[in-house]
Amino acid sequence: MVTVFKDDLFELQWLRAASHSSSGGADIGECLAAARQIGEPDAERWFTVWSRLADGLAVGAKESEAQGRLVSARSAYLRASNYYRTAYTFLFGAPVDPRVVDTYRRQRTTFEAAVALMTPMAERISVPYEGTRLHGYLFRASDNGQPRPTLIINGGYDSTAEEAYFFSGAAAVARGYTCLVFDGPGQGSAIIEDGLAFRPDWEAVISPVVDFAISRPEVDKSNIALMGVSFGGYLAPRAASAEPRIAACIADPGEFTLFEEMKSRMPPWIARELPNGNPLVLAGLNLMMRRRMRHVTAGWGLRRGLWVHGVDSPLAYLRLTQDYSLEGLAGRIRCPTLICSAENDDIGVTADKLYAALTCEKARLRFLAAEGAGEHCESGARSLFNERAFDWLDDVLGVSKAAPNATPATLETVS
């Protein structure tokens, strides 16, 4: 959609950062200035420029706060948090780079400083989970203590609870929802600080989150919705297939199986050998992928995948993706479900398969490049996504009687 970097991954990660301008997490001019300073795709330069920008904003935010200029302080803290997260993106992998840990904590600290200045004040939360706790936040639309329809936002591979606020948390609160965001296994603090890897049975993660939610007076227990963003487009429907307290589910983009998603991006001769084909071919493939992992962008997804799934070889990673499937489970989802996808996104190629497998009330949203919403998770047009997704959610939960706006996206509804 834009051309800031010649490298596609640098371009997409830049757009991801800049896209959060719609919810206070970025300024386009700041992001363009950062891109000009980075120049050619370089992971070290990327880290230096974004972290330096974030450092400057964090200092300015503290000065504004000390002077009682709380709106200015909150704004700068939010942008600093997003830029810190952006800074460590290309440093993913095992063993964990100490800069990832330090910069992750800076993105959390600056976000928490912004949270303390929100009105109503948001709250850092800690969700009990299998002998440990999951980090997250609760955002309120009002201080009156009344229960409200509630949205749980479930991020994806390299998301954080803080970034979930930028994706759709701010939009939820603006529409009167209570909103809960969290880091599950494989995400944010859970992987960076605690070493908790992803698990396919995501209902085991969401059920404790729902347990926590229903204990809160701000949450309408009968109106809890779950939104999955990026890889969350698999995780959220998987959780909804076994968690009856979910009243509505949104998958952006919908993903039926991680294995098929990954195979779709491989040459046919490789895909044919997976998962258990010719041993010599697979050994060669594993070696080839290990070499690929050294490339700053071509190997980024593999480095990240091995780390967050806790495996030590590319082939092991590819094989475990078979466990992340909604085969035989999609039909168990009982709540109304919205399946989304973006035109240019090579993630979500199994969205139609997931939609077809659903037997619940369902709807389908397709976002187009012509409207600026064709990139992964509608980056660059997240406001448009939130308008249409929340129109659907309002209608399903009875928050509003207004019908969802289906133009120019295509909305298909089946009861």
Total number of β-strand segments? 9
Order of helices and strands: HHHHHEEEHEHHEHEHHHHHEHEHE
As residue ranges, the low-confidence spans are 401-415
The name of the CATH topology of the largest domain is Rossmann fold
Number of helices: 16
In the CATH hierarchy, what is the superfamily of the largest domain?
A: Alpha/Beta hydrolase fold, catalytic domain
Share of helical residues: 40-55%
Average pLDDT level:
93
Main sheet: strands, sense, barrel: 9 strands, mixed
CATH architectural label of the largest domain: 3-Layer(aba) Sandwich
Q: If you compute it from the alpha carbons, what radius of gyration comes out, rounded to the nearest whole angstrom?
A: 20 Å
Distance between the termini: 35 Å
Structural class: alpha/beta
In which order are the strands of the major sheet placed? 1-2-4-3-5-6-7-8-9
Q: Estimate what percentage of residues fall within beta strands.
A: 5-15%
Give the class-level CATH name of the largest domain.
Alpha Beta
Inertia-based shape: globular
- How many distinct folded domains? 3
List keywords for this structure.
415 residues, alpha/beta, Rossmann fold
Question: What is the structure about, briefly put?
Answer:
The chain is α/β, with parallel strands linked by helices. Helices cover 45% and strands 14% of the residues.
Describe the structure.
The chain is of the alpha/beta class and 415 residues long. It folds into 3 domains: 1-117, acylaminoacyl peptidase (de novo design (two linked rop proteins)); 120-256 and 331-415, Rossmann fold (3-Layer(aba) Sandwich), CATH 3.40.50; 260-323, no CATH class. It contains 16 helices and 9 strands. It has a 9-stranded mixed beta sheet with strand order 1-2-4-3-5-6-7-8-9, with helices on both faces. Strand 1 and strand 2 (132-139) form a beta hairpin. Helix 1 runs antiparallel to helix 2 and helix 4 runs antiparallel to helix 5. The two termini are 35 Å apart. Mean pLDDT is 93; it is low at 401-415.
